[in-house]
Amino acid sequence: MVGWKRILAIIIGVSGWGSGLMAQQYKVSGVVRDAHSQEIIPFATLQFVHTQTGMVSNAEGKYLFELNVIPSDSLLVRVMGYNILKLPVNKEQKEQVINFEVTRSDVSLKTYEVKANVNWALILLKQIVKHKPENNYNRLDNYKYEVYNKLELDMKNLNKEKLGRNRFTKPFAFILDNIDSTSEDKPFLPIFLTETLSDYYFQSNPRKTKEIIKAARTSGIDNESVTKFLGGMYQNVNVYDNFIPVFDKQFVSPIHHNGAFYYDYSIADTQYVNSQRFIKLNFTPKRKGENTFIGDIWVHDTTYAVQKTTLSVPRDANINFVRKISMVQEFRQLPDSSWFLYKDKFIADFWAPSPKPGKTFDFIGRKTTTYDDVVTNDTAATNIFSNKKFPENVVVLDSARARKDSFWMDNRPENLSKNEEGIYKMVDTLQKMPLFRSYSNTIRFLATGYKPFGPIEWGPYYYLFSQNRLEGFRLRLDLGTTPQFHKDLYLYGYLAYGFSDHVYKGKMSALWLLKRHPRSYLYASFTKDLDNGTHYYDEVGTDNIFTLAIRKNGVPQKFLMVNEKRFEFFKEYYSGFSHQISLTHKQVRPYEPLPTAAFYPKAPNGRDPLTSMEVELKFRYAFHEQFLEGNYYRISLGSKYPIAELKFAAGIPGIANSGQQYQRLTLSVSDYVKLPPFGSFYYNVFGGKIFGTVPYTSLEVHPGNEIYYYNKYAFNMMNRFEFISDQYAGFNVEHTIGNGIFGYIPLIKKLKWRQFWTAKGVIGSLSESNKQLNLNNGFAFKTLQGDPYLELGTGIENIFKFLRVDFIWRVTPDVTPGEPANKRFGVFGSFKLQF
Question: Cα 589 to chain center, whole Å?
């Protein structure tokens, strides 16, 4: 009997043990992420719907339920600041993985506000702000780190079947193999990828930065200036700053020293990680439409340092072509207990108009940056600034773009995904396809106006034909060389013909780049053509097809035939200083109604009074000015500092029939100043003096505008050749405000119009000898002596995302009685694409 009892006890024990095993038969696990940034969300609350069964995800955002039975057919996740998300659970499946991707909520934290005598969130904010000076890593005397930067651009919402059938995209069907998706309804096609690996150096006093790009890999682009901007220096975001740049806008940081004026705050959670306590602070904008974020910050409760922050741009923020933006920054504690940036991510969903009504092209850009090997307050971070081997702010090593795959595999912080690896191969294959090159050249031609044909190119096309009262219909052909002809020598010329005056005009020029960094060059040109009134690269002159229909009524066109030979030498230094010497021989022949050569007596020895031989010295200082470089020329992207320019010129008589003797001195200072949260401010102050008695063609003819396209650099309510001076000083300012009063008008607010105001003024005088020579000789020149010119303007920009309308009033001097009313007030249009 005893044996049977033992056997029965064993059976019962085994049965009990077996039932214990069966009690843990269901497992539900997964991870919680932000749907846009794909960052994990730690300490999220998960709960089976309509039950008390729940848990909190861990610091890695992971969770695991081990259950006897599945208590509900749905599982929800709740995170403060995010929308609640429910997903179905299979009650029959033993093990299942359910990953949550939650989206930000635009609901104000006032919804969750709890009435209390003490607002603990604001107390925490005050402590964060108080400790910003000691937690901001830029407080350090110096530091260095290795930075890896990865930038990817993907096309979203593609229909794989339609793309495969479309006759334009069918030849490129192979790229569809790279389409990836996290779900069947969200496919995306990776189309661009770049990686850079750099050493970054910082010194606080005096403030200096330097980046050595030691590896760079880019799909489809091989331009050194572009590579520089894809490095780490130009994409740094510091959450400790009061304002954070988002494209060309300045957004208020959630830990701005006056953050409570812009945000509502709430303490959402408190957690311990590795025996350290962290507090989660959520924030939402107080007012819609302002440049503020939605998000949260995890704060270390001892040092009040930021451990992690997630920033999202609200849908109603005044920013163009972007559906959604997320920024994530993560910090790590160094051995000395200070906190330093470890990782940041930037994700933006873009859209662009499509030819089909109501359709758009959708893209998503992802930037991931990691920071390793941080060294602080060490000579290893400062020695680089005295190393003459690296004189530029950003240096791309010669070997950077020649790194092999093995180098990248050894030095990337994390491996590329299968699709990311396929981008390089895909783009390389596309570049070799004749049809793809044909499509690319067509798009390039429409965008830039230039069409290459091997070693030469035609363009820009908008100069092909135009019309004016002197030439009638004007035809012009422009040709230039490409790098296939010579990488450092650029030859350019055009030939134009007027069908009314039956005169050929043209230009020939040669640019020889002696050195690209820092730049030095030789330039020579010969021009025989009408002066079309342009002085800056982005002005609209009279010699293009777009100005035919926008001339002011009743304002006759004024022409000068210019015969000019010019030679110049330019040299730039790494400091931002540059100098240029030029030699110009110019003969001018004005047409009526301007005073012609007949009004001016011959100079001594029978020399031509309207011919000059001028030597000019120009000195320019632009500290840390940045450029986007083309094959030969470059476009300035400006500087964070004022740009100063000084010119001295002298007219030398007696050379090649030159009859003018004078000296001219001019000075200008300009700058763009960020004024967050009140937009940006541009100013240019200038002045000059001409010593000598010369015809108006060598005086200061204050720039006017005779078309209804707004000219930033001219006086828009002034006609060309209306005012002349030999001594003058002036200013040009523009304040771009942003929303302005439109932010308080509900219907207008949704249109995202923006406000600005402008002011331009100049005062000048004319010596008695220049008055006698130039006034009362057939044209009503005026002077500004005792009666300065002033025009004020305001307007609306961002109309349909790209139109700008200026309303300009001429304040002084008063218009002459009998002149039309449009001399006092004008409405001007222009195009301006911006975020």
Answer: 43
- Cα gap 446→440, rounded to integer Å: 10
Q: Which residues pair with 682 in a beta bridge?
A: 672, 734
Residues 448, 54: Cα–Cα separation, whole Å: 59
Which residues, at least 6 apart from 168, have a Cβ–Cβ distance to it below 8 Å?
none
Q: Is the pLDDT of residue 117 over 60?
A: no
7 to 2, 17, 18, 48: CA distances (angstroms): 9, 15, 16, 42
Give the ranges where 131-240 is alpha helix by DSSP (H): 132-135, 160-165, 224-229
Question: What six digits make up the tokens of 357?
Answer: 């009504």
Query: Concatenated DSSP letters for 165-191?
Result: H-TTTGGGGGGGGG-EESSTT-EEEEE
Higher pLDDT, 564 or 275: 564
Check if 26-102 and 451-831 are the same fold.
no
The whole-number pLDDT of residue 363 equals: 81
Distance from C-alpha of 825 to C-alpha of 811, rounded to nearest angstrom:
9
Q: Which tokens sit at 457?
A: 């190119």
Three-class secondary structure of residue 825 per DSSP:
strand
The C-alpha atoms of residue 78 and residue 644 are separated, in whole angstroms, by 56
DSSP H or E segment with residue 774: helix 768-774
Instruction: Compute CA distances 206 → 141, 203, 210, 382, whole Å.
Output: 10, 7, 13, 11
Q: For residues 20 and 801, which has the higher predicted lDDT (pLDDT)?
A: 801
Radius of gyration of the chain (CA): 34
- What backbone phi and psi angles, to 5 degrees, belong to 435? -65, -40
Give the Cα separation of 823 and 809 in Å (integer). 9
Pick the CATH number of 451-831 from 2.60.200.20, 2.60.40.150, 1.20.120.10, 2.40.160.50: 2.40.160.50
Q: What is the pLDDT of residue 183?
A: 41
pLDDT at residue number 746: 78
Enumerate the β-bridge partners of residue 671: 683
Query: Picking from 18-22, 76-80, 423-427, 748-752, which range would have the lowest pLDDT averaged per residue?
Result: 18-22
- Going along 692-741, which residue ranges are E strands? 700-701, 724-725, 727-738
Which two structure tokens, joined as six digits, stand for 232? 């780490």
CA proximity to 807, closest of 751, 743, 753, 756: 756
DSSP class of 607: B
Contact criterion met (CB below 8 Å) for 299 and 281: yes
* Long-range contacts (CB closer than 8 Å, 24 or more residues apart) made by 546-549: 546/462, 546/709, 547/466, 547/707, 547/709, 548/466, 548/467
At residue 603, what is the residue type?
A
Across all residues in the chain, what is the average pLDDT?
A: 84
Residue 283 is predicted with a pLDDT of 92
| d(C-alpha 204, C-alpha 723), whole Å | 49
Highest averaged pLDDT of the listed ranges 124-133, 148-157, 427-436, 553-562:
124-133
State how far the Cα of 703 lies from the Cα of 225, in Å rounded to an integer.
Answer: 33
Q: Quick one: tokens of 76?
A: 């929800």
How many Å apart are CA 580 and CA 570, to the nearest integer? 4
CA distance 202 to 374: 11
Domain borders along the chain are: 26-102, 451-831
Q: Report, as an integer, the average pLDDT of 652-661.
A: 92
Which of 515, 417, 424, 480 lies closest to 192 in space, CA to CA?
424
Non-local (6+) Cβ contacts of 540 within 8 A are 534, 546, 547, 707, 709, 711
The token pair that represents 527 in the structure block: 């021009």
Q: Which residue has the tokens 């009998």?
A: 818
**pLDDT class for 19, splitting at 50, 70, 90?**
very low
Confidence (pTM): 0.81
pLDDT-derived band at 496, boundaries 50, 70, 90 = very high
**What is the distance between the alpha carbons of residues 753 and 462, in angstroms, rounded to a whole number?**
30
Specify the CATH class of 26-102 in words. Answer: mainly beta
pLDDT at 233 over 50: no
Please give the average per-residue pLDDT across 639-658, as a whole number.
94
